[in-house]
Amino acid sequence: MKVIGIDIGGTKILGGIISTNGNLIKFKETPTQAKLGREVILKNLFNTIDELIDEDTKGIGIGSAGRINFDTGVVEYATDNLPGWTGCKLKEILEKKYKIPVVVDNDVNAAAIGEMWLGSGKGYKSMLVMTIGTGVGGAIIYNGELIRGSSWSAGEIGHMILYPEGRQCNCGQRGCLEQYASGTAIYKEYNELLGEEKVSSAKEVFELYKENDDIAMKVINSFIKSLTLSILSLKNIIDPEVFIIGGGVIGSKDLWWDKLKIILGMDVNVVPANLGVRATMFGAAKLILDAIY
Ligand SMILES: [Zn+2]
Q1: Between β-strands 127-132 and 136-142, what pairing exists: parallel, antiparallel or unpaired?
Q2: Which domain holds residue 223?
């Protein structure tokens, strides 16, 4: 028995044939070509599925960026990272084309399910998964179930207001966590403090931090502070067994993880995600497996 798990991101579509016990049988990676709009994204999605599907495939699980209606499989809202994606009736389109059951969920929700199934969340029933990359995403699992929210936007912790009247966020609010604790925020803050455009990625700032660069120290310390503030607030609201932190910034965790743990103290159980970029793909497969069995 096997299903297909798919992760639709702004730059790549990752697809895999995955067995009931989580073995990856075949893997396929395709550029999303998101800038070219919905029809091209769909074409690349179909190509990915066509490469993987055979008569034994029992269903397709999709994790997509954006706010996804899990009941209908419609993309309720997607940012400009996926132009034209808003309103796409993904479940309907795929079920019509492939004649097998399809589920669609938000990519971070799917990643959280993946981590609970095969990654750092194994053995836990309630967890908060944070992904820190270009932005900050989140997903909440309580008693083994995803909390999706009344309008499919639960767990959007990147837009919790951390500093009232703070930096302008692209969501319209000011002072969102994402403006302080994302990879983007890290390198932008560095350039701002320096007064010139020196770096273009968080990775470069972490490199400078290693060399005891004054500004990098300041930026990374403030990143850790914002992250701990958000985790402590969320702990008081949700009280999960574990916080799982993933996303691109986790690649530099050796430089900041110990500090984070010390500030958080013994009462907060925080662990790094360990499925990496394939968490969403595996989680999407698990979602369809759960839906058909
Ligand atoms: Zn925001």
Answers
A1: antiparallel
A2: 123-273
Integer Cα distance of 107 and 112 in angstroms: 9
Answer yes or no: do 167 and 221 share one domain. yes
Give me the CATH number covering residue 202.
3.30.420.40
Say what the pLDDT of residue 10 is. Answer: 87
How far apart, in whole angstroms, are the C-alpha atoms of residue 66 and residue 41? 14
**What is the 53 CA–ligand 1 centroid distance (Å)?**
38
Cα 136 to ligand 1 centre (Å):
10
The answer on pLDDT for 81 being more than 90 is: no
Q: Name the residue among 269, 242, 292, 280 with its Cα closest to residue 117.
A: 280
Each residue of 259-284: pLDDT tens digit? Answer: 999 999 989 999 999 999 999 999 99
Residue 35 Cα to ligand 1 midpoint, Å, equals 23
Report which secondary-structure segment, H or E, holds 171.
Answer: none
Q: Is residue 117 part of a domain?
A: no
The distance between the two most distant Cα atoms of the chain, rounded to a whole number of Å, is 59
Ligand 1 centroid vs 158 CA: distance in angstroms? 6
Question: How many domains does the chain contain in total?
Answer: 2
Distance in Å, CA 104 to ligand 1 centroid: 24
How many angstroms is it from 54 CA to the middle of ligand 1? 42
Q: How far is the CA of 269 from the centre of ligand 1 (A)?
A: 26
Side chain identity at residue 52, one-letter code: L
Distance from Cα 237 to the centre of ligand 1, integer Å:
19
pLDDT of residue 36: 95
